[in-house]
Structure formats: C-alpha cells, structure tokens
TrEMBL record, chain A:
Residues 319-384 form the Reductase C-terminal domain. This is NADPH-dependent 2,4-dienoyl-CoA reductase/sulfur reductase-like enzyme. Residues 3-295 form the FAD/NAD(P)-binding domain. GO terms for cellular component: cytoplasm. Signal peptide: none annotated. The lineage of its organism: Bacteria, Bacillati, Actinomycetota, Actinomycetes, Kitasatosporales. Its cofactor is FAD. Coiled coil: none annotated. InterPro entries: FAD-oxidoreductase/Apoptosis, FAD/NAD-bd_sf, FAD/NAD-binding_dom, FAD/NAD-linked_Rdtase_dimer_sf, Reductase_C. One of its GO terms (molecular function) is oxidoreductase activity, acting on NAD(P)H. The keyword Magnesium does not apply. SUPFAM superfamilies: FAD/NAD(P)-binding domain (SSF51905), FAD/NAD-linked reductases, dimerisation (C-terminal) domain (SSF55424).
TrEMBL record, chain B:
This is 3-phenylpropionate/trans-cinnamate dioxygenase ferredoxin subunit. Pfam families: Rieske. The keyword Nucleotidyltransferase does not apply. InterPro entries: Rieske_2Fe-2S, Rieske_2Fe-2S_sf. The keyword Iron applies. PANTHER family: 3-PHENYLPROPIONATE_CINNAMIC ACID DIOXYGENASE FERREDOXIN SUBUNIT (PTHR21496:SF23), FERREDOXIN-RELATED (PTHR21496). It comes from Streptomyces griseochromogenes. GO terms for molecular function: 2 iron, 2 sulfur cluster binding; dioxygenase activity; metal ion binding; monooxygenase activity; oxidoreductase activity, acting on paired donors, with incorporation or reduction of molecular oxygen. Residues 3-98 form the Rieske domain.
Length: 386, 120
C-alpha cells in the first residue's frame, strides 16, 4: 500500500492515522477534513469549553511534539469516492488517489426544519458551533434546550452554572430512556429538577417564533416557552452522503464487519459514521461515543494493512461518560435487551450509586453516578465476559 | 522527601494505594508483583488514577481512558497529553515508602486554575 487517505480529521481520523504509523505503515498518508481546524476534542464543547473554564488550545488532540508525517488537506470536503479509479473527489475539484481509504467523517447535528436564519438558535457539534453558543449564553436570560439527551442535558447543566434560566423540552416521556432504559433514564434526568431546571417531558415542539431572533419555543400542546436562546439537541446523523453511488453499503452509516472493514476491499470505516457488527449484541451497532472512536481504529487499521487476513477480535463493550451538574455519569454495555436493573452500591437518592443491567442473570451493562472506581471494576468484568 | 505509604502485605497485587498528600500520589502493585508510584491525579481532568484500570505496567484513567506507563509516567493517547510524575518506591521492613519527586507536577487545567485561585 503506497497511499492511504483518511477522510475526516477528528478523533477517529487522527486515531486511525496514529494506528497506521504505529503499525508500521510507512507510505504516503493524506488526512482530509472539511473543518479548517486541526483535530480537536468535542466532549468539552458542551462542558468546560462552553463554561469558559478551558480555551481552544486545551482542545487540541495532538501533542506538540507529534509528527505523523501526514499531508493535511483541511477546509475541503470530500464529495465522492470513485472505486474504479481508487480516488477521492474533493469539493475544490482535486482528486486524491489512494490504495487504502479510512472513512472517518463522523456525524452532524440534526436540526429542526424551518429554524434556519433565526438568530439565537444553535446546534452543538463543532468548535464554531460552541463559540457561537458561548457568545449567546454570555447574554444570560432564558435558555430553552430542545432534546433531553446527553448533549442537551450537558448544555442545560453548563448554562445553569452560568446563571441562566433553563428549560429542557423532551418529546419522549422519559429522557435518556433509549440508552439507559426507563428507570435509570428517569433517575439521571432527575438531576435537572435537583437544580431547579425545568424539564417538560412527553411534549413535542411545533416550531419557534421570533422575527429576526428567536423569542419562544412553541409546543405541540399549544403552549409557548419564552426563550432568548435555543439549543437544538435532537441527535446526530452520520455524514455519509458523500459516499452515495460509491458501492459502499450505507445502512445507518457505513455498514461494516466486526473489524471496521466495508464490503469494498481496502476501505474501512471508524468512529461515529461507522455501523460496526457487534458480536456481543449479535447485531450492527453505530456507537456515537468518544472511546469507540478512539479505540476501534487500531483493529480496523490492522485489518486494512493485512488486507483482511486478520481475525476480528471482540471490541470492548461501548462506553461513554457524561458530566452534568457536577455528577460524573458513566455507562458501559448495551441496556437494550436487559430484563433487570439493580442498584448494587449506594443509593439513587443521593445520585451516587452503581447499577448493573442483566439479561437472564448475566450482566450486559453497568451505570455509575459518581462511582468511578467501582464502575471501572465492573466495566472490566463486562469486557471479560464471553 | 520520603513518605511511608502502607505495609506491603496490605497492598495486594492488582491494587493501588492512594496517599492523601498534596498533590496526591498513588502506589501500584502490579499483577507481576512490581511496585510503582506516580502522581494520582490524571493530567487531563480531576480523576484519581488509583480508581483506574491496572493492566501490566499501565494504568488506564477511570474517566476517559488515557493510559499512563507506571515506569515512566508517559501517556499513550488523548485526551491527556502530559505525563504524570513518577516517584521512587523503597520497601523497608515490609513497609512501602515513596520518595517524592522534586519535579513540578503536571496538574490538569481545572486543578491548576483552582490552586492559582482562579475559576474551578
Ligand atoms: C458537544 C459534544 C459532547 C460530547 N460529549 C461526549 C462525552 O461526554 N462522552 C462521550 O463518550 N462522547 C461524547 N461526545 C461524542 C464524541 O465527541 C464523538 O463520538 C467523537 O467526536 C466521534 O469522533 P469521529 O472522529 O468519529 O467524528 P467527528 O468528531 O464528528 O469528526 C468527523 C469529522 O469529519 C468531518 N467531515 C464530515 N464529512 C466530511 C467530508 N465529506 N469530507 C471531509 N471531512 C468531513 C467533520 O467535519 C468532522 O470534523 C460528544 C460530542 C459532542 C458533539
Ligand atoms: S481525566 Fe483522565 S483521561 Fe480524562
């Protein structure tokens, strides 16, 4: 292999580039990214960076002395993958030929239709989004967060600490029920009420009102919630449109085997855009978490360099963390399919506990609130389980 | 400065013992029976490495998975970027002692700011 192109210059792309060099790949390495920035860390965008506790320099993922001997093509989008020519088309008209391709284009924040062009309305995915939101939060006033998922909850928590008046609107009856299940979703989202942040559940959003700047969120029940700033936190969709017609199978992101290989030889996918087969779950799973984007490229790059002659290992169970209202929330495994969840340590009342999800008696997931040590032990056990 | 940590017999293999000094330091007893001491606080954020995941001569931070080499303090991958200090371990009469390094620690930005009297 003489040229490998990595498309997407964020966590998964950088991890893949590092894995390539670590695993002895010595050829030409091109990293293509549509943002103008070098790889930066996203989790702080809803936490310390939004709060003003850390600055842009602290977000850098690369070390100062790091040199991957890569060509960085930044500020340019990939628009297509030509399988026959083995070339990546760029928006600026260039073609980059490559024998190996790493797809790491991540995901983009979903928006609400009809909210374009209204000032004060934000999504949060990129550094530029975070800068704009930070400026608006500095005006104070009333913030309405649409979506009670992890990013929405973190923004609410950060804005609360900044002194804003915060309301969270969630269409589902219980926030976080998808990833955590009903019971634990309810317990974690009770953090909002602990801090006097209003949580409106089971009600959809009809639209926004305002002339040039948003002034209210209109609910489907006819109510309006006054707002000076609105954050739309309704999930993300994988950035794979550029691959249409390339022969790469797209199904909730790039469909991959258990080692990130796509159906096209020499092409792997990693990070938030990749829908990997998960042998533990017996199904494809697109994992939108930091640690997966960080860890899994190692296995995918090994498969790429060995031309698929490696046996895919079993990846560690998915893991994510969240920080809300000063509480560290950690979760590993799959909650779907669990038939019981029990608190093994601590109590849910003081938001300091460890809960284990089981299916037919076997642990399949674990949730910790302010329990890093125990959580780490359980996570290890979960990974060791067959 | 030499500080007594705990009795060797009280620190099973695979476990860590945290010394509540400022900044805190932890002694790790590896599965192979080796002893190492490093700064306990991750250089990324306020996490205790004694709560982490010990494997071979590496400890993985309990929050965001950066791994630190117990022998050198070096960090492998983001989000942490700076190494932790290592300290010399001496065992005398079954008692573990730590000789605290004279180098400056690499504290995470949130703690460094707090010590400087700035925002947490
Ligand atoms: C605000 C926020 C907070 C988060 N907090 C947590 C947390 O607390 N814990 C946790 O586990 N996870 C968290 N995450 C998730 C974590 O950040 C992601 O899982 C991780 O960033 C995924 O990395 P990635 O490289 O796959 O994708 P991304 O980080 O999305 O990077 C993809 C890159 O590819 C670029 N790109 C897209 N299309 C193209 C194209 N056609 N051509 C060229 N470049 C393209 C994008 O612009 C982007 O720069 C958070 C995410 C956000 C946004
Ligand atoms: S706190 Fe240790 S890696 Fe983040």
């Amino acid at each position: 292999m003489r040229t490998v192109a990595v498309v997407g210059a964020s966590l998964a792309g950088l991890s893949a580039a590092r894995s390539l060099r670590k695993q002895g790949y010595d050829g030409r390495l091109v990293v293509i990214g549509d943002e103008p920035h070098r790889p930066y860390d996203r989790p702080p965008l809803s936490k310390e960076f939004l709060a003003g506790a850390i600055g842009e320099a602290d977000l850098a993922l690369e070390r100062d002395d790091e040199d991957l001997r890569a060509e960085w093509v930044l500020g340019t989008r990939a628009t297509g993958l030509d399988r026959a020519e083995r070339a990546i088309r760029l928006a600026d008209g260039r073609d980059i030929r490559a024998d190996g391709v790493v797809i790491a284009t991540g995901a983009a924040a979903r928006t609400l239709p009809g909210t374009d062009g209204l000032a004060g309305v934000h999504v949060l995915r990129t550094l530029d989004d975070a800068r704009a939101l930070r400026d608006d939060l500095a005006r104070g006033g009333r913030l309405v967060v649409i979506g009670g998922g992890f990013i929405g909850a973190e923004v609410a928590s950060t804005a609360y600490a900044l002194g804003l008046d915060v309301t969270v609107v969630e269409a589902a009856p219980t926030p976080l029920a998808g990833p955590l299940g009903e019971t634990m979703g309810g317990i974690v989202s009770a953090l909002h009420a602990d801090h006097g942040v209003r949580l409106l559940c089971g009600v959809g959003v009809k639209g926004l009102s305002g002339e040039h700047r948003v002034d209210a969120v209109l609910l489907e029940n006819g109510r309006g919630v006054p707002a000076d700033t609105v954050v739309v936190g309704v999930g993300a969709r994988p950035c794979v449109d550029w691959l249409r017609g390339s022969g790469i199978e797209l199904d909730n992101g790039v469909k991959c085997g258990a080692d990130g290989r796509t159906g096209v030889a020499g092409v792997i996918a990693v990070g938030d855009c990749a829908n990997w087969y998960d042998p533990r779950a017996g199904a494809h799973r697109r994992v939108e978490h930091w640690t997966g984007a960080m860890e899994r490229p190692d296995a995918a790059v090994a498969a790429l360099l060995a031309h698929g002659a490696t046996e895919p290992g079993v990846p560690r169970p998915p893991y994510f963390w969240s920080d809300q209202y000063g509480v560290k929330i950690q979760f590993a495994g799959h909650a779907t399919g669990a038939d019981s969840v029990t608190v093994e340590e601590g109590t849910t009342d003081d938001r300091c506990f460890l809960a284990v999800y089981r299916r037919a008696g076997r642990p399949v997931a674990v949730l910790g609130m302010n329990q890093p040590r125990l959580f780490t032990r359980w996570r290890k056990q979960l990974a060791a389980a067959p | 400065m030499m500080i007594p940590a705990c009795r060797l017999a009280d620190l099973p293999r695979g476990e860590a013992h945290r010394l509540d000094i400022d900044p805190p330091v932890s002694v790790f007893h590896t599965d192979d029976g080796e002893l190492f001491a490093i700064d306990d606080t991750c250089t990324h954020q306020d996490a205790s490495l004694a709560d982490g995941w010990l494997e071979g001569c590496e400890v993985e931070c309990p929050l965001h998975a950066s791994k630190f080499d117990l022998r050198t303090g070096a960090v492998d991958a983001p989000p942490a970027k700076l190494p932790v200090r290592t300290h010399e371990v001496v065992v005398e009469d079954g008692m573990i002692h730590v000789r605290i390094s004279t180098e400056a620690p690499n504290l995470p930005p949130c703690i460094a700011a707090r010590l400087a009297g700035g925002p947490a």
